[in-house]
Amino acid sequence: MTDQTNDDFVLLEDETLRDGLQLESRIFPLEEKLDLFRQLAGAGLARIQVGSFVNPKRVPQMADSEELIRALRHEAENGPLLSALILNDKGLERALSCGIGHVSMSVSVSNSHSLKNAGKPAAEALSGMAGLIRQATEAGLSVRAGLQCTFGCVYEGAIAEAAVLNAADVFASAGAGEINLADTTGMANPLDIERLVRKVRKHLPALQISLHLHDNRGLGLANMFAGYQAGVRIFDVCTGGLGGCPFVRGAAGNVPTEDAAQMFSSLGVKTGIDLRKICATVGSLEGLLGRKLPGRMKTVLAAEK
Amino acid sequence: MTDQTNDDFVLLEDETLRDGLQLESRIFPLEEKLDLFRQLAGAGLARIQVGSFVNPKRVPQMADSEELIRALRHEAENGPLLSALILNDKGLERALSCGIGHVSMSVSVSNSHSLKNAGKPAAEALSGMAGLIRQATEAGLSVRAGLQCTFGCVYEGAIAEAAVLNAADVFASAGAGEINLADTTGMANPLDIERLVRKVRKHLPALQISLHLHDNRGLGLANMFAGYQAGVRIFDVCTGGLGGCPFVRGAAGNVPTEDAAQMFSSLGVKTGIDLRKICATVGSLEGLLGRKLPGRMKTVLAAEK
Hints:
homodimer; alpha/beta; TIM Barrel
């Protein structure tokens, strides 16, 4: 587990293969996913979210997640920690069937968002997830429990801190080792991040905190830095800044892996990421997608040549 | 003068008409500049840099600066403070001839950058500017003195703090009311900003500080927030994120006016800017330029409709 008091290292979880690809209309065949994974691992990413066990009719991009994970388990034995998203019992069953050791789960703290996104009230989704966390940890998996819309919701506006702390209690009691606070609709500012992170850390000092930040208002890196200042040492990123929230238009864009790596490097904080290699991966991805991605460092490196 | 201790208001100086347009190959006729100015003033911008008195052969976009300022002085009597860039005696003469009351000047703290950009060593450029500041203040103008490459230089790397403090002393002694610290090649991180701003404030508490930040590595808003936290209350912006540094490839992109206004609004800090109006101006500018600009809030507002 990453030490939240260690100032010298942050863990960037690359979610290109899951959060990044899930919004794309182009279906990436298994071989391309394997190649992208190898590039990410080769660039030094220590944790990679590679797929999700959700309804393949709803998210066809992720239909080959079992196959991908089975293929990766053989070659990634000493490589990055593999992660996959599950949302229900069926997903857990599929995760167990392919032998992944770590899963990510997620519910929304906003009732309106939960109803629109997951089709159930937030309280029901939360208690359902508590049960799922218990099942997963009893089956020997390590679990990261995510909370969507933590810093505000386009439907509900501000979110009560008490609701976030309550969800954190539920996650921790059920056995989650990490809580992922997500700014799903990109509404957080640096002061919000710092305030809430400090509250959660004070409330549950042993619980690892990670941040999933969206860059739609351009505050991704500002919020990431504020999280770092408040003690967070795990951040989600996507190569090139791909992905974002599929349920709120205009909320697209994760924090680019390469720009986050550059920021931390500039601050003297290690990420283990090779900037030139990750920018080459941005190039591969842009080639496959046929468009330029929002991340900046590939352009900056090219100009410095 | 903006009170550096006031937490509730920041002044955004929009530089679209100067820093923004100067890199464009399309020449904007006077009528379009007047229209853009009216839109910026109507959106609530309180200080607008409208042109520069530099060699019209080198920067043809700015050739009509006298004409523009003469036209604006009549209609902007109770409007935004007009600003224009000058670099030498000839520029000061032209500024005085059209009756502008405030000028901006700029030298580089990096010797290599100064040689490439201004064709003279940094020390010579600095002493030349001291003389120019004296002439301008004696002629009744208020002066902002800018320092390029303050947070690092692509040619020289780190810049000594002592060189920045020395330049600040020279500017203040010569009569400048404001020092503009520029991250010309977009190399600063939030810790650099906070450290240097606090040093300059401590060294010269009466000197107003403003920041000119480039967004090429995506850290524009993160650095702006760090500057705000360190006490800066004046920031340069360009509508849509236009412009940047013409002398270093890849360094393009000022902090977008609309994204800065949104960030401060979210923090509870007033800028006086109407977000919908400034996003409409981004639309006008994108229409004239025939391309999408990097600023985010126009897209976010359109998605929220």
